[in-house]
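Quick sanity check, RepA protein:
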Amino acid sequence: MPRKPMELSKQEEKLLDKAAVIEGTPPSGDDMAFTHAVLCQVGLPRSKVEDREFMRQSGAAWINIQAGWLDEGNGPVMQPIPYGPMPRLALAWVSTYAVRHKTREIPIGSSAAEFLRLMGMEKQGARYKTLRTQMHALAACHLQLGFKGRTFNGAPVEQFDTWIANHNDRQPSLWPGVMVLTDAYLSSLLESAVPLDARALQALKGSALQLDVYAWLAHRLHRIEGRGMVLHWKALREQFAQEYSGKDPDKDFKKQFLPALDKVKAVYPKANVKQVNGGLLLMGSQPPVPYRVD
C-alpha cells in the first residue's frame, strides 16, 4: 500500500530524531569522528565497479584505487574495489581511533557483530556479508590520494587477518582483533584529518552519497569567505557522480543530489547552502564539530 504524501518512513523519522538531537545538543568528545581530507573531496565509488581500477578527480584532489588480493584461508582470492556506505563508515571509525590515540593498531572487536556495534550499526544478518566483503576489499586495495603536488602512495592497511566464516550458523564468524595501518597512511591522516559529527554519520549511514556530501560540506564550508561561491551542476556531477551519462546527465544527477542534500542539511544545520540558478551557492558556515571539543 503506497504511503500518504506527508507520511514519513521509519528511516526519515530516525533521521529527524537524530537531527533534533544534533541541533539541540553540542557534540561532546565522544561525538567527534575523523576522516582523511582528500576523501572529503573525492570519495570511494558508491556502486559496484566491474573494473580492477577506479579513478576520480575533483579540482586539485584525486583518488586512485586498485583492487588487490587477500588470503582467505586457502590461498589468494581476488577482491573487488570497495564501494558503498560500509567502507566509508569503517574508514571513519578506524581513522577516528587512529587520530585519537595516535596509533596504527586499531582494535576492531572479536566478531563482526561487535564491530558493527562499535560503528553504531544494527546487528542485522544481511550486514555481515556486506561487512566481510567490503572490509576484505578495503584491506586488500592499493590506494593513492593526491592533492596539490603531494601524493600518498600505498595501502592503508599493513596487516589484516581475514574474517573466516564459521560454518556453525549459531556462532559468529571469526574476526581479527586488530587491524594495523601503514605508517604512511597514519602520517597522512594525522596531517589532514577532518573532524565530523559521528551522530550525523550514523544518521546518514544508509547512503554513500549522503555520507560524501556531508563530509564534503564539513571540510569545505568553514573555509569559504566573503559572498560565497557558486558551483554549477556539471562541476558537482564531475566531483560526485562521473558515472552519470546520457542525454542530460546533469539533470539526472541533480534529481539524486538535492534530496541527499536536504538530509545532510538536517544533520548539519549550520550548513549555509542554497540552490540557485544552475547550481549551488556555498557560503561560509561553522563546521559541524569545533576543532577543539571539551
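Posting the structure with no commentary besides this: The mean pLDDT is 83.
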